[in-house]
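Recall the central idea of this unit: under ordinary conditions, the amino acid sequence of a chain determines the structure it adopts. In this exercise we apply that idea directly, starting from the sequence alone.
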Amino acid sequence: MSNRGTETFRPSVAFVTHTREYSSADVLPALARCGFTTTERPHDRDTERLVAQFRPDLVVLAIDPRQESDLRIVENVARVAPHAVLMVIAPGPHAAGLASALEAGADLCLRDTDGGDVFAAQVAAIARRRRTAQPSEDEEPKTIAVRDLILDFDRCQAIRNDERIPLTPTEFKILAYLAKNAGKVVSPVEILRAVQDYSYSEREAQEIVKVYIRRIRRKIELDPAEPSYIVNVRGFGYMLERRTSRRPEQAFRAA
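Accordingly, the structure predicted from this sequence is:
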């Protein structure tokens, strides 16, 4: 079990790697302004080893998620850096591949055409959330229990039967938001607004949250095809179910 939540605060570390040309003049200065110590290098066979060694708080991948080889990079980095925020910068202006990158393990996807200001705002939001997430020694641990699922907000961990569930930072934030609103239906737009400082249209939010929910279900549900924790309320959004048995209403479904 990770003890990262109880560590002494250390400088924020970012690891930037790429498989294609990208605007480093937008990325690297924004990271420096937000207090990140940054390592930047082209992707090669040593990348995953170095990511695991540096244990960065943020990994920025400038890749093309339309390429299967680049999606495997996302999967590999997500595996070796489960506590890092994983950001993908994809070629713009098209949106092709963004959902695939999220499926592969990315926490956030931006496009080149979103511009340096949007990237800088996202980095600032990540830095701000990391600072405010540092636990105070004077505070008692805060947890929420939904049946046998326990969310520890001091350590940013989800636990069941004394075993930690390996959630990415964004997956934990979404599950935590649902837990804080357990028994209440929340829309995809509300969910993303709560966990990311970025505005999405309703349609974009639906597609993005659907990917995250699918990933979370794979980790917390005994049978992801028949979820008992996170249910979808057709036309409205998602709800973390307190009950041990499924509700009978036809409006509730798994998708």
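The longest helix spans residues 115-133.
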